[in-house]
Design a protein that fits this description.
Elements lengths: L4 H6 L9 H4 L8 H14 L11 E4 L2 H12 L5 E5 L5 H10 L2 E5 L11 H13 L4 E7 L11 H14 L2 E5 L15 H5 L9 E6 L12 E5 L2 H10 L7 H12 L1 H28 L13 E4 L9 H13 L6 E2 L10 E4 L8 H17 L1
Parallel strand pairs: 2-3, 2-4, 4-5, 5-6
Antiparallel strand pairs: 1-7, 6-7, 8-10, 9-10
Helix pairs in contact: 3-10, 4-5, 4-9
């Protein structure tokens, strides 16, 4: 930023600065140069196995409006989306507050590493229809937030096949696609949609730079849809949440700097991997397991052994103890609609290396206080 900030903001096609290039109205769906840069960047971080067409892309002021705009485009007030649990609690705000669209939990269990199954989707859909709810789509995050697991190619195919059979849409939130650190392959739903086996017009993808590039203040997200009508409707709604041209100019320069991006992403993934190993190993030494994960800035920790009672009440009591006694802020599973008490999301990437032993010691002392 310090080396390229002013030059990137002042850039123009002919090399001469023109104030109108940043001060005048521009396409609300994002500058073409930025959509091209985003398309190349997304393909690069997703392993180069899928290409993205800039004409199917709308730039949004972060991931939050991307999700909300898709809800406006795909569902009417009173309709619903199926959503596998546990899920990111911010989806309640992003989806429900202004669109009037409901979220119907599809409960997943630790025995499946909290991975959604077709039978669970079928059950949730049937129950919703019996209650008179019209289900318009399925929303999920991949890598999962809060679990951190990565959906397999087979699972993605199952989800899309189910959606096609039921004539509903699929929204895949892939905002952590570049923050993978395990051995498991990340597959974008765009790759599945482009295989020729499915109706790709029902697939819609959300991405943004807040997580993978750690720049949430830039408010830069993406809607990628194979449905022309959805793209056109989203473009119109972008008048309410477009990205400032100055920010777009900076991002064009940033995302187009292939050498920097490749070096940055390699360092980013390595740092997550190293910190994840330290954090999970520390918990393991305390006898506290974690769900298998390979992506995201967090891990899903099973603290059920510390519960005074195996219930939501027991989990919330533990949350209070962690917060007030151990001074550790972890998201309880109930906030993520997890039906198994005792799971917590811990954002280990927020910690310095020297903080991890401190955290482990505080958890150890808290655990001992329960036993005494």
């Amino acid at each position: 930023m310090s080396e390229n900030l002013m030059e990137s903001m002042m850039q123009s096609d002919d090399g001469e600065f023109d104030i109108s290039s940043i001060a005048m109205y521009k396409p609300f769906e994002g500058l073409l140069e930025l959509r091209v840069a985003f398309a190349d960047f997304m393909s690069r971080i997703m392993g180069g196995n899928v290409s993205f067409d800039p004409s199917n892309m709308v730039i949004t002021a972060g991931g939050t409006p991307a999700i909300e705009v898709l809800a406006f485009c795909l569902a009417d007030h009173g309709n619903a989306f199926l959503i596998p649990t546990p899920y990111y609690p911010g989806f309640d705000r992003d989806i429900k507050f202004r669109t009037g669209v409901e979220l119907i939990p599809v409960h997943c269990r630790s025995s499946d590493n909290f991975t959604v199954t077709v039978s669970a989707l079928e059950q949730a859909l049937n129950q919703a229809r019996k209650r008179g709810s019209k289900v318009s789509g399925i929303l999920f995050s991949n890598p999962s937030n809060p679990v951190g697991n990565i959906l397999s190619r087979e699972t993605l195919c199952d989800i899309l096949r189910f959606a096609q059979e039921k004539n509903i849409h699929v929204i895949s939130d892939e905002i952590f696609a570049g923050s993978v650190y395990g051995d498991k392959e990340f597959v974008s739903m765009a790759e599945i949609a482009g295989s020729g086996e499915f109706d790709k017009t029902r697939v819609h993808i959300i991405y943004g730079l807040s997580k993978d590039l750690s720049i949430p203040g830039f408010r830069a997200g993406v809607i990628y849809s194979f449905h022309e009508d959805v793209v056109n409707a989203a473009k119109k709604l972008m008048r309410f949440s477009s990205v400032p041209v100055l920010v777009q100019r900076i991002l064009i320069s940033l995302l187009s700097d292939v050498r920097f991006i490749e070096g940055y992403m390699a360092a980013h993934r390595q740092r997550i991997r190293d910190k994840h190993i330290r954090f999970v190993e520390g918990l393991k030494q305390l006898g506290i397991p974690c769900a298998e994960s390979g992506g995201g800035l967090y891990c899903w920790v099973d603290m059920s052994s510390l519960l005074t009672s195996y219930s939501e009440k027991g989990e919330l009591e533990l949350f209070e103890k962690l917060l007030t006694v151990a001074k550790i802020n972890a998201t309880p599973g109930t906030a993520c609609y997890c039906i198994e008490p005792g799971w917590f999301r811990c954002c280990f990437t927020a910690l310095a290396d020297e903080d991890i032993p401190v955290i482990m010691e505080r958890i150890r002392q808290l655990a001992e206080s329960f036993r005494s």
